[in-house]
Amino acid sequence: MRKQVFNHSSVETHWQKIWEEKNLYKLSDMNKVVNAFYNLWMFPYPSAEGLHAGHAFASTGSDVYGRFKRMNAKIVFQPIGYDSFGIHSENYALKIGKHPREMLEKTTKKYEQQLRSLGHSYDWRRTVTTSDSDYYRWTQWLFIELFKAGLAYRKKTEVNWCPSDKTVLADEQVMSPAQAGKEAKDARGNIIKGKKDILVCERCGTQVEKKLLEQWFFRITKYADRLLAGLKKIDWPDKVKLAQTNWIGKKEGINITYPIKDSNQEIVVWTSRPDTNFGATFIVVSPEYAKQNLKNLLIKDVQSKVEKYIKLSLSKSKEERLNEGRKKTGVFTGLYALNQLNNTQMPIWVSDFVLSEVGTGAVVGVPGHDKRDFEFAKGFKLPIVRVVVGQDKDQSDITDVNQVQEEEGTMINSEFLNGLDINIAIGKMMDFLEEKGWGKRVINYHLRDWLVSRQRYWGVPIPMVKCKLCGWQPVPSEELPVQLPEISDYKPEGKGRGPLANHPEFFKTTCPNCGGSAERETDVMDTFVDSSWYFLRYPSVDSKSSTKLPFDREITKKWLPVSLYFGGAEHSVLHLMYARFVTMVLHDRGYLDFDEPFPRFFAHGLMIKDGAKMSKSRGNVVNPDLYIEKFGADTLRLYLMFMGPMDGFPDFRDTGIEGMRRFVDRVWELFTNFKNVVVLDEEGARFIMIKMHQTIKKVTEDIEEFRYNTAISSIMEYINLLRGVASKNQKSKIKNQKDKSRFKNKHFNNIRCAEWDEALKNLALLLAPFAPHLAEEVWVNILGQEFSVHTYPWPKYNPEFIEEDSVEIVIQVNGKLRGTISLSKSEAQDKEKVIESAKKVNNLAKWLEGKEIKKEIFVPEKLVNFVL
RNA sequence: GCCAGGGUGGUGAAAUUGGUAGACACGCAGGAUUUAGGAUCCUGUGGGGAUUAAACCUCGUGCAGGUUCGAGUCCUGUCCCUGGCACCA
């Protein structure tokens, strides 16, 4: 028979054109919908290099699911857009000396072409580009909504500053170099080596600095508890939920107040372990706390020493303090606090290891229970006391404390808390302290408010006006958008103000309140504000009624929240938390009926190449275009989905994709060469049907759980079987041992074609989500079915066929495999029968010989185990 | 340090409730075809042992124990890796 070659490029471009012409993936009316399914992939930012294979891996994962749902009677809305504002786009524009807007046209065009060539089923009619003014006017609207709700405010504080990007950053955008996937750089761009605990800019890997600036913040901390509680009701991967929980960092504790000896003042510390307070031997306050609260109490002898220490500490950034190693510095203030619990006087020290932003900025030193306090106590020869609280007795919090105990510490017993579980002890202690009026329960969070100002050009102008008389005023909604002007000097200068500050024609304006002269805010918004609400916009982009609001309320009711959100886990505490926050705010403002935007989120993994994350600097970026051209989009899609689990970290290899292309050719050959020639007898037909229904079941269940790799492998098994039947070369095509043994006794002689047709038809349907072009070509042009395979109902399996006629029983002796027998289903249920047959197996006699069978373990339809 | 998740062939990986470990592929080896190479097809492929051949035996899921008729799967300890948080009191 002649070898058939699948001409991928002509087949794929042909069907892409037809799909487009027939609007296969475009929804005509967003209002008339039943069974709506909003299938969303996190939109990319358009980079000049285009999509790499990692994008293709992720987006294909989403597309497969969308196609599967479409075939399962859902009206699928699958949009795509561009997160086009932001430092990432702007930095590249600066590098090549082109205006970001000019660059944007090229990059989005390239992205669209690439996504289309992958055969994705996007609704290209409804797209979103965050840098378009008809999108960002609504981002400005959102800002004003937050302002009106009291959730957008200005604050002067120490903020993260990236010296390379010349802007401030939110806490969430500052991370370890490993997290950013970059090598740490200093302000001049030189690689930093050998230093630990460096925090860098998420975008460029430059070590961040601290600056004291007044900036715009969103009050996300107000939603800390809501953000935590909401996690309980959404279907997300545990690791993502956990990352958010950790980031929010809710901790219950208590503020304990100690009187300061010989004064009428008090000192307040926050602790989560008041049960150890019997063992408190000193107090340490942060330099900031000391400066604010203790200065006036200092006696002359120590005053200059303490002030010198405070001054020195405050001149250092937080990072510098931390980087100086674990050796703790400090100074005694000469003051004492009274611990009313054990009537001791605790010396008050100042040390820079205490962070001013945590708790009250003052810590009670319990060196018997805390490693840092222990180090401090050892360093300055302060007493070490360990409290025995119930079950805490043996489990030391500090490894070397027990040893120290004998040498220099005292062990005391707290009768008050004796024998209690640690959590109960903590609760009891808090009750006690509150009753006495010595303390008050306070919950602390790690989460900080979201800093949204950016001193850059390429972003949404913050729609606020500052009037000397009226203060900050929002721009009236009818004046939105505040257009981002086209300027040529858009390079950031690093003076703490954005490039727009050099353009009086932009910022000079009048006050919306009093009409007097006023100035606009010249900073722009963090890109994460743009992406915090884009999913609300997609379904409504072409709605006429969305002129007063960014989204049509009726359409939103039908389509939101998002049915399945597909994206990377690297956004766990960035985009995913911001989007939840914004959705909650809009819900509370009465614009939305739901307060969780993504009830179901799947976190895909990250594709790597040669063991490392793909990046331009490493030079290991895989361009999907070359593979599409050489092997075809379907081959690439199948390969990407087959490489491993969707949430894994597959390593792209050329040889792997070649193997997948061979598979595609074999599929093509099966359809073209064996469409009509195969004939089956009744027994052979049933044999094929069993495998077919088993495959349908497996593929259906696997896709639903994103186990695409095993779905594809079961399709491969199915095809191997069909090819074996087709070529009558039984032994060679079927490698699966189970199929092989069953195959042996079957005959494929008499004419009987209906089942064969059904087998091929269902094969095309099962392939459709993974290889949409191949499936369509085969469906229409070979099997002669009606266009389109992608709107044809997904095959259902018949449970009658899933159960095989005969089953293989495993025979074990003392738990070890000694043989197998094949029995009919009914026989396999009967213990006596199975044991009888099992004993007849040749090999078994030598194992049972001369030994007494103590026990016979029988699992119906599975195994029999002889225990000797 | 704390909290998660994970260690299975040369490689990517499979393995409902404990019940034939390594499906499906890649790679590799041998063979067929070919002037040759490539492509294709066939055979083999966890380690070790044994046999003329087939059947066969034995070890094997990071390591050490345990529970069980039976453990990749459950329990205890331990080592390593990945991710999140981190002088957070």
How would you describe the overall organization of this protein?
The structure is a single chain. Among the domains are: 196 residues, Isoleucyl-tRNA Synthetase, domain 2; 62 residues, Ubiquitin-like (UB roll) (Roll), CATH 3.10.20. It starts with 7 loop residues before the first helix and ends with a strand. About 3% of the residues have low confidence. The longest helix is centred in the C-terminal third of the chain and has 23 residues. Helix 20 crosses helix 21, helix 23 packs parallel to helix 27 and helix 27 packs antiparallel against helix 28. A hairpin with a 6-residue loop joins strand 23 and strand 24. The chain is globular. The chain contains 32 helices and 33 strands. A four-stranded parallel β-sheet has the order 2-1-26-27, covered by helices on one side. It has a four-stranded antiparallel β-sheet with strand order 6-5-9-19. With 868 residues, it is of the alpha+beta class. The chain is 39% helix and 18% strand. The structure holds one RNA strand of 89 nucleotides. It catalyses: tRNA(Leu) + L-leucine + ATP = L-leucyl-tRNA(Leu) + AMP + diphosphate. It is an enzyme of class 6 (ligase).
CATH C-level class of the domain at 250-445: Alpha Beta
Total number of helical segments? 32
CATH fold-level assignment of the domain at 250-445: Isoleucyl-tRNA Synthetase, domain 2
- Oligomeric state of shown chains: single chain
Distance between the termini: 58 Å
Q: pLDDT below 50 for ≥5 consecutive residues: which ranges?
A: 390-409, 729-733
Major sheet attributes: 4 strands, parallel
* Strand order of the biggest β-sheet: 2-1-26-27
